[in-house]
Task: structure prediction
Amino acid sequence: MHFEYFIEGGNFAEAGSTSSQVKKTLKQLNVDGTVIKRTVVALYEAEVNIVAHAYSGKITVELDEEKIDIKIVDEGPGIPDIKRAMEIGYSTASPEVREMGFGAGMGLSNMKNNSDKLNITSTVGKGTEVEIINYFHL
Amino acid sequence: MKVQEVVKLINGTVMTGNKNPEVTVDVAFASDLMSDVLTIKAENLLLLTGLVNIQAIRTAEMSDISCIVFARNKNVTEEMIRLAEENGITVIESPYSLFRISGILFIAGMAPVY
Result:
């Protein structure tokens, strides 16, 4: 199964609506509750990141019998130093993002802790690609 | 602890229509930082917060949190209530501070996450 969603940068009111739709779909498919929670927590952090940092983004969800594979591709400023961005507490978020309850430098580590596989690649001035893979049975 | 009991202890008002008196919460976590809330794996979690915006409801939705208390009578918006009801989340407003709510519930036997 294949789903695509488009995310608008800066649209704080809508941040999380895609993660919500994905959660509803996974529930309907009777995916294990722990896998659903891990997946949507990682996805929600990624979605907030697009809204917070990028101009626009596309989320593609691929489901097969063994795994869920999510690709989050944005057009944005990119991440100059991914290793540093992964550090807990490191953040470049705006005050607006902090008012939402995010921007404390926990997002990427939250994504890592809730993914079986997490790949992040980024080009400064172009954008960032994140892939989250979670298996239904490990 | 039953949600109904929590409401009584903190002088709360249930804002959502889904008033299921049998819903129970075992552990509580107080935070205005949603990224921190998203790290919690505990089930039947009660979220206490002063952050009144739509992302608090979204965070509860993603984390399977069934009940949120908003401290200091900050008014929740209709949009927040609608989203909470859609996801079976009970929203409670309390006039007390986050510190006082935490203290009351801790004394009453509510377990902390850490």
